[in-house]
Amino acid sequence: MRSFIDVIIFIIILPCKLLIYAHQINSNSFSVKSLLMPIIASVLVFLAIGLLLKAAHRFKFLYICNLIISILIICDLNYFRYFKDIISIPVIINSVELGAVGSSVKSLIKYSDFLYLADLAIIPFINRYMNNTKKISKFPSVILLIICVLINFKYFYKLSREQPRLLTTMYNKVYITNSLGVLNYHYIDIYNTAYNRINRLAPISKNKISDIQNFINNNKASEKNFHGSYEGKNLIMIQVEALQGFVINSSINGREITPNLNKLIKSSEYFDNFYYQVAAGGTSDAEFMTNNSLYPAQSGAVYFLYSGNTFDSMPKAFYNKGYDTAALHGFRENFWNRDVMYKNFDFKHFYGEKSFKKDEIIGLGLSDRSFLNQSIDKLDNLKSPFYAFLITLSSHFPYDDVNQYGNFDVGNLEDTLMGNYIKSIHYTDEQLGMFLDKLNKSGLLNNSVIVLYGDHYAIPKNKENLFLKFYNKSSISDVDWIKLQKVPLIIHFPDGALKGINHTNSGEMDIYPTMANLFNLPQKYMMGKDLFNSTQGKIIYRNGSFIDGNYYYMSENNTYYNMKTGSKIPETKTLLEKRQSVLDELEYSDSILKHNLIKKLDEK
Ligand code: GP9
Ligand code: MN
Fold first, then answer.
1. Do 299 and 244 fall into the same domain?
2. Chain centroid to CA 233: how far?
3. Residues 375-391: pLDDT tens digits?
4. CA of 332, closest atom in ligand 1
5. Is 306 found in the same domain as 164?
6. Which residues are noted in the entry as substrate-binding (predicted)?
7. How many A from CA of 332 to the centre of ligand 1?
8. Percent of the chain beyond pLDDT 90?
């Protein structure tokens, strides 16, 4: 027995840590019964390898494995708190290249997370009680390996039957983790990353290409209302950092949170059922979708994984039409690999941090006030007509530069993430009001279509309790939560011809096709819909969830809901077909990226 103290500790402690993590990310439907065996099987792999070593080496090997797995759990836990997703290899590549946004991560880590490392301080002292001399046969290691392969095969097969394509596409990493444990998820991620790298080299079948082309051609709107109505006008698109829909037309103690946007809405087309669709690529996913109408990458960010691809982007389409094109953002040019991607998208000018006087810093960087003020001069110097894409920054998580946002009384939300966010977005709203006034005075407003939208949520899932305070509610259902994931889309037309509240279910994928119709741009590889000529209200998420009319499918728990009543509904043949077509569309988009299909099809 004393020869195996390290093995006993390992086989007890590691599954406990993995079960605790599983409960932390999925307290609603956590079940030890369904998770214990796949988790033990995932741990046995390390034991099988360890038993091939001499006892002294085995002790060190198992100790290091314990340390690595514990650190991985802490990273996964904090990543989940913000992104509600599980880290994958492409994301790790991102974060190395991104230089993770320090303040965001720091504000998420809890001291209790380090309890995952507590045993590692004690285990070295146990080593002296071990009997390292006993010779151990290799046979048990082989038996263990067979046992864990058989156990895992059973659970992997069951999941692949229940959720076809899930293990190969990993469209829903949370579901895999909740079903198989986080270690098995990482094994699958490592396998898929290697397979995809190799697979990308393999040619795509002609049938798959024609399926994709058929989908894209059928996806074009038959109607062409307002086609080319704004050809020759400028397009100014403003992506507002973390502008979440719940602040629009909301007040605290009678004071509007976003008075300037509320005013803009009155003279614009306002889409009040517009949702963000970002995945691991965060802000870069938002701008990738609005400028390309292709879905985010399965894992990681397109801006890193496919930066060498050819894209049929909106700035490229405008440039080919004789427009000047510019992107403006007061932060590091290489953040999210933008300097590479914007060149690839044919933004002829990219005014990044170095193009602005850094005269006022708020949060991550240049203040929205200074950025927007300085941007007016840059727009004035663009050749007309132009497409200009501006990205704000001051209302970036964790909104902790509160003294710089001006005074806005948030009542009982003071000193909470929600209260700080409201102050920050109120500040940004003020700067946007100033910016729009200056556009008006310079005459640009009358000669431009303004598109303004939020890139993604502001309040992460692990802070949903703040909405109970904000709305004075006692609970938040799954349907309440998805409805809170709206961001505003406001389109202001120079002639005010189109204005009103548009309830069409829509998302970031739909902006480019909508602009292509209004400005008469070619529509070659778009997967979204033209919002002024579409009746189907479908929104697809990277993890396979979707909203379609009145239905909401939540892939995290494989459940359908009625969006009106919030009640769960059983899967019908129609709903299963919808779910399959959603996975097809995601796969088409992935194939376009993986095989650089736009380049191939353009060359044809
Ligand atoms: C920085 C800003 C932040 O450039 O776009 O990106 P995010 O952290 O929100 O993805
Ligand atoms: Mn963002």
1. yes
2. 32
3. 999 999 999 999 999 99
4. 4
5. no
6. 396
7. 10
8. 75
Q: Cα–Cα distance between 108 and 78 in angstroms, integer?
A: 6
Domain membership flag for residue 252 = yes
Rounded to whole angstroms, how far apart are CA atoms 426 and 417?
A: 14
Tell me the CB-side half-sphere exposure of residue 585, using CA atoms within 13 A: 29
Residues 367, 503: one domain?
yes
Q: What is the pTM of this model?
A: 0.83
Looking at the DSSP assignment, which residues form a beta bridge with residue 552? 547, 561
What are the DSSP E strand ranges found in 317-412?
A: 324-329, 349-351, 361-362, 365-366, 386-391
Sign of the alpha-carbon dihedral angle for 305, 311, 314, 315: positive
Pairing mode, strands 251-252 and 255-256: antiparallel
CA–chain centroid gap for 114, Å, is 27
Q: How many domains does the chain have?
A: 2
Order of strands, sheet of 538-540, starting from the edge strand that comes earlier in the sequence: 538-540, 546-548, 551-554, 559-562, 568-569
Is residue 140 reached through a cis peptide bond, with omega within 30 degrees of 0 on the bond before it? Answer: no
Q: Are 143 and 230 found together in one domain?
A: no
**Smallest Cα–Cα separation from 546: which of 502, 573, 519, 577?**
577
* 3-state DSSP of 87-150: CCHHHHHHHHHHCCCHHHHHCCCCHHHHHHHHHHHHHHHHHHHCCCCCCCCCHHHHHHHHHHHH
Ligand 1 atom at minimum distance from 396 CA = 9
The SS3 of residue 252 is strand
Calpha distance 454→465 (Å, rounded): 22
Peptide bond into 15 cis (omega under 30): no
Co-location of 320 and 353 in the same domain = yes
Q: Does the CB atom of residue 101 touch ligand 1 within 6 A?
A: yes
Ligand 1, atom 5, residue with closest C-alpha: 283
Cα dihedral across residues 145, 148, 153, 156: positive or negative: negative
- Check whether residue 317 and residue 338 sit in a common domain: yes
214 and 140 housed in the same domain: no
171, 199, 227 — which closes off a domain?
Answer: 199
pLDDT tens, position by position, 194-242:
887 787 777 888 999 999 999 999 999 888 899 999 999 999 999 999 9
* Cα 423 to ligand 1 centroid, rounded to whole Å: 19
Binding residues for Mn(2+): 241, 283, 455-456
The CATH number assigned to the domain holding 313 equals: 3.40.720.10
Is the same domain home to 242 and 391?
yes
Residue in the structure block whose two tokens are 């005010």: 496
Residue 45 has pLDDT above 80, yes or no: yes
Amino acid at 125: F
- Residue 204 within any structural domain of the chain: no
Ligand 1 centroid–CA 33 distance in Å is: 40
Contact 306, 593 (CB under 8 A): yes
Q: Catalytic residue at 283?
A: yes
Answer with the one of 164, 199, 234 that is the final residue of a domain: 199
Range of the domain at 506: 209-603
* pLDDT at residue 133 in the model: 58
- Asked if residue 592 belongs to a domain, the reply is yes
Q: Could you say which of 169, 283, 428, 514 is catalytic?
A: 283
Return d(Cα 276, Cα 8) in angstroms, integer: 47
